[in-house]
Every structure is written in structure tokens, then in C-alpha cells.
Design a protein that fits this description.
Blueprint: H1 3-16, H2 19-24, E1 41-47, E2 59-61, E3 65-71, E4 76-81, E5 84-85, E6 97-101, E7 113-118, E8 123-127, E9 129-131, E10 136-140, E11 150-156, E12 164-168, E13 172-180, E14 183-187, E15 197-201, E16 204-207, E17 218-220, E18 234-236, E19 246-253, E20 271-274, E21 298-307, E22 312-318, E23 337-340, H3 343-346, E24 357-362, E25 368-371, E26 377-380, E27 391-397, E28 405-417
Parallel strand pairs: 2-9
Antiparallel strand pairs: 1-3, 3-6, 4-5, 4-7, 7-8, 10-11, 11-14, 12-13, 12-15, 13-14, 15-16, 17-28, 18-19, 19-28, 20-27, 21-24, 21-28, 22-23, 22-27, 25-26
Amino acid sequence: MNRHKIIYNTVLMLLAAVAFVLTSCEEDDGVPLEEPNGAPSISYIRVTNPEQSDSLLVRAELGAGVVIMGENLGGTRQVWFNDRQATVTPSWVTNNTIIVSVPSVAPLQVTDQLYLVDKNADTLAYPFVVTIPAPEVFSARNEWPQDGEKLVLNGDYFFDVVPVTVDFAGGVQAEATVVDQNTLEVDVPEGAIEGPVTVTTNFGTATSSFNIWDSRNIVLDFDGKNPNGWRIGATGNSDGPINGNYLIVGGNVNANERDEGPGAPSESTKVMEYWGGSDPNRDNNFYPYYPNSYQDYVMKFEVKVNTWYGGHLNFCLAPPDHTGSNQEIWSNDINARAIWAPWQAEGEEYSTDGQWITMVIPLTAFQYYIEVPDAVEYTGGQKFIETAAGSLSTWLIGSPENDGNYIEMYIDNIRFVQP
């Protein structure tokens, strides 16, 4: 028996298994169902747009809406594409049409058929091809994978029909494990170097826009590129460093606290200041000046959070020549700031489970300023000043949820790049 026949028979067995469900539970949701006057038949399949009703289909992509045209279709209770069941809305089923969407998940067994199943589990097969898009690569959990750490890629259309491979800069390749349609894991092979990665499936290839071990436009790595303001921050490398020294952020934080840490110059765990104009290696902005260019850039960094509940981490931008003052952390008129508080989404302690991850903050997210009557509040919508992005400070500020609790996180490789 050939492989296609085995797959076809397996799918038919799967469809037959729904007979009990269909005969014991009539799913009409209160919508009168048209009774067929004879055996069902399919004439053709078209697109859902009525203005293009003459556009006939023999194939469609995952998630595409289609209209099945025929006769005596009113008895249909289930529609399958290969071995994936589509969602059927009773009000969209008549004797002449069925409006349905191709499932968004790729089939495991490909028969290039769709199947209509009635309440008696009688099945009508019709040739129809579900086309699988080429993979897409959106991001990496950690763009700086360490020795022994798998590179985890996030994207779409990762299908394990044949071995999925990942090509690295340096001319080396590795076979990936498909976790699900949106996640790949791959061991980083010896010989891989900085650069993008390319994912290949049976349906195409995709190359990442990001680089692994990305060294482009790093402004702070806390080794040779260091803070230089009144508060230079605290650094360390004893808790699983990702790339030499890292910035330590945290400490015991009280409700609505706005503490700058010890006296200047200091190694505060709550404030770090980098003044671009005081760095002989930098005398301009973090990105090109031309109008609206900031919309095409993001700030990235690697971060490891051990414990974090309450408080907001502020990223404060200022002009590159803004030296000799730390007022960008207090002021609302030098430039907008970005606010990061991942614990707030779930209202519970946040950690990265002992792992480093890559954080991405679009420059368009720099739109907040502080309202400070008694408690600290944040208001969005401050205009981004394009020329005011050549100095950077971080400031950990308490929120009402803090009660002196301990916060600890590490940050490394702060860079401004196109995503």
C-alpha cells in the first residue's frame, strides 16, 4: 500500500470516528438547518468576496475564507481540510453554499482533499490543496545564546513535515526542533558567528532581520562602553553573565520611591547615566537624524530578571550634548521616556526563570513623562524629540505596590538598531 493511500485511509478513519458525536449532538445553535433533497455534491469553490465570485479556487492558504458551492449541502455538520477540522457556523451552511475558513494550523497528514461530513458521518471528498506559506522569523528569545543554550526562534509557519534546518553565519547549519507552529529550538553549531539566521522548511526559507550576538551600535556593554554620569550604576558578573559585566538594577524599593541611590559619583543600583557628549567615541544621536527615522529603530538589550514585583524601570533619553546634569531623569521637557514593568500585566512577581532574554523597546514607545504630586504617576503622549536621543539614563522608581521588597535584574548590551 503506498504512502498516499495510507494517509487517505487514516484520515477517513479519523472522520468515521466522529459518527457518535454527530448523531448524539445536533449542533444547530437554534438556526434552522436546510434539509438536503438528495446526495450532496460540490460544483466548485470560490473566494468569499461577492464581487469576485467568479474567482474559482483549487487551492488556498491557511486561514483563508472560501465558499463551497454545490447542491444538497445543508446536511453538512463538519468540514475538514486534510486532517484539520474547520469551524462550521450553522447559519453559513445552506443547500447551495458553505462559507468556511481553512484551518490556520498546518495538516499533519496531507491528502490534498477537503471532506464534508453529515450527521450520519457519511463523507464527501473533493480535491482541494491547502498551500503552506514559507516560514517567517520574528524574533529570538535570546539573541546572545550562551554555550550549551539552545537558540529559540519565534515566528510562524514552522512545520515539521521534513527536517527543518537553520543556517548560521559562518557557513554552518543545524537541524531544528519544531516546538509548535510559532516556535523553533536549535542547538547552536560550532563555527557559528555573528549574523542573521535562515530557517528552511519544506515550503520555503526565511532570514531573520536580527543578528545573533548582535554587536551593531551597542552604546553600553558595561565592559569597555560604560556609563559616565553622576550615577554610573552598579556592575557585576557573578550570576551567569551573558557577555562580561552587566548592569545590576534593583534593591529594596518602597512605595512611590524616587531614590537616586548613594551620593555622586556612585554605583547606584537604581540609577545609571550615560552622557553621549562626554564620550569621546560618540558625538551624535543613537540613530540617523533625518525626519521620522526614530520610527524605524528600536532599543534592544539582554536582561535577566531574578525577582521583580512593583516599580517601573524608566529609560530616559536626552540630547547627546546633555552632560554635567542628570536632570533627564527628573525633567519632563528634555525628552520622552519609555516605561517597563512586566510584573504589572499579571499583577504578580516576574522573573525570566534564570534565563537571559532579549528585550525590544521601539523608539515609538518613548512617549511618557512623570506626574509627581505625592505619588508617582505616568502620562503618555509626550512628543518624541528626534535630536534628543544621544544620552541615556535608567531609573528604577517605586510604585504603590512596593513595600520595601527586593528587586533584582541584570541588563547588558544596550543597543539601538533597526529591528
